[in-house]
Amino acid sequence: VQLQESGGGSVQAGGSLRLSCAASGFQYGYTFSNYYMAWFRHTPGKEREGVAQIGTDGTASYTNSVKGRFTISRDNAKNTLYLQMDSLKPEDTALYYCAADRRPAGPWDFGYWGQGTQVSVSS
C-alpha cells in the first residue's frame, strides 16, 4: 500500500488546515474501504503519537489533545483519507503521517506508512 500525504503548511494559532492522504496499491482483492486508516504525528525529541483513526465502518477515535478540534474522515470512492484540523495550537506543530492496515494488531499498530507532511503553527 502506498500512501501520499498533502496539505501541510504554516499557519497561525487558531487557524485551520486540512490534510489529505491518497492511497493506492492495495492487497489483491481488497479496496481502500477494507483498510483501517489513521493519522500520526511526530515531533523531534518526542515519541510518535497517534492522533486519530477511522475504521472500515467510519467509526472515528481521537487522542485526547485533539478531541473537538480535529476531524478524521475518509472518501472510499476517492481512496483518500482526510484530517480537518481547526483551532490549531503551537503544540500541534509536527510531521503528520498517514497510516493504513487491513487488520491492525493493536489500537495504534499500523503496517503501512506515508512519508509525512509538515504542519507548523506559530503563536
Structure characterization notes:
Strands 2, 4, 5, 6, 9, 10 and 11 form a 7-stranded mixed beta sheet that branches. It is globular and about 45 Å long. The protein starts with a strand and ends with a strand. It contains no helices and 11 strands. It is mostly beta strands and 123 residues long. The mean pLDDT is 97.
Number of helices: 0
Q: Report, as a whole number of angstroms, the end-to-end distance.
A: 37 Å
Low-confidence stretches: none
The gyration radius over C-alpha positions equals: 14 Å
Number of strands: 11
Assembly type of the shown chains?
Answer: single chain
Question: Which terms summarize this structure?
Answer:
mainly beta
Describe the secondary structure blueprint for this structure.
Layout: E1 2-6, E2 9-12, E3 17-24, E4 36-42, E5 49-54, E6 60-62, E7 70-75, E8 80-85, E9 94-101, E10 112-113, E11 117-122
Parallel strand pairs: 2-11
Antiparallel strand pairs: 1-3, 3-8, 4-5, 4-9, 5-6, 7-8, 9-10, 9-11
Question: What is the gist of this entry?
Answer:
The protein has 123 residues and is mainly beta. The protein has strands at 2-6, 9-12, 17-24, 36-42, 49-54, 60-62, 70-75, 80-85, 94-101, 112-113, 117-122.
